[in-house]
Write a structure and sequence with these properties.
The chain has 230 residues and is mostly helical. It has 2 domains: 152 residues, Ribonuclease III domain (Ribonuclease iii, N-terminal Endonuclease Domain, Chain A), CATH 1.10.1520.10; 67 residues, Double Stranded RNA Binding Domain. Helix content is 61%, strand content 10%. It has a 3-stranded antiparallel beta sheet with strand order 1-2-3, with helices on one face. Helix 8 runs antiparallel to helix 9. It is flat, with a radius of gyration of 21 Å.
Length: 230
């Protein structure tokens, strides 16, 4: 069924010699693929994703705790930035994971947004597979290389800051009012909806943003407002 050499990917790309290559194959298997191959495929990657998510958070948290004497809130924001979906997609792209995914024909034709979430989940599943096959220390090395290595840039460019919180702090300090957010427009089907949000100081709009959820659109609107306001 598979023409992909997963052992080659493990050894030459991940730089890991899996004892049980089936763990890696399962990590790359979406639920939809299982539905199309019930007679030959027995498992999908959701349990490995669940495990990988926990291991990823533990490794990143341990690193931050041991290496930075910062307040809890700062460490939490740094961790959130490191493990957010966009970061996982970036790392999976470096590894060229997408062509290896075992997806149904329908999922392959799905929206880019849905596929990107699948890629991020798959990256966590790969972490889970490495943990089960190689143990904690090898998993730490993998996470250090593909996730924690981004921290210096995140701190330097300030991308760990929550735009909504930053905007609120500045506006309250300068004008003693709180920004408000309103949905200006929403379009697309329920499974692929996009929102446009404006951020206002009283009745004056100071920024706008779009996103796949109201939360993301608000963050983008705040980021836009910071550019206009500062």
């Amino acid at each position: 069924m598979d023409k992909i050499d997963y052992s080659n990917f493990a050894s030459n790309v991940l730089k890991i010699d899996f004892k049980n290559i089936d763990l890696l194959i399962t990590a790359l298997t979406h639920r939809s693929f299982l539905n199309e191959h019930r007679g030959t495929v027995k498992a999908h990657n959701e349990r490995l994703e669940f495990l990988g998510d926990a291991v990823l958070e533990l490794v990143v948290t341990e690193f931050l705790y041991k290496n930075y004497n910062k307040p809890e809130g700062t460490l939490t924001n740094w961790r959130s930035c490191l493990v957010k979906t966009e970061s996982l997609i970036e790392s999976a792209t470096i590894l060229n994971v997408e062509p290896l995914l075992r997806l149904s024909k329908g999922e392959r034709r799905g929206s880019q947004r849905a596929r990107q979430q699948i890629i991020a989940n798959c990256f966590e599943a790969i972490i889970g597979a490495i943990y089960l096959d190689q143990g904690y220390d090898q998993t730490k090395l993998f996470i250090d290389k593909y996730i924690i290595s981004k921290l210096d840039k995140i701190i330097e460019d300030g991308s760990w800051l929550d735009p909504k919180s930053q905007l609120q702090e500045i506006v309250q300090r300068e004008e003693a009012i709180t920004p408000s957010y309103k949905v200006i427009d929403e379009h697309g089907p329920d499974h692929d909806k996009s929102f446009s949000v404006g951020v206002f100081l009283k009745d004056k709009q100071i920024g706008s943003g779009t996103g796949a959820s109201k939360h993301i659109a608000q963050q983008n609107a705040a980021k836009n407002a910071l550019t206009n306001y500062l």
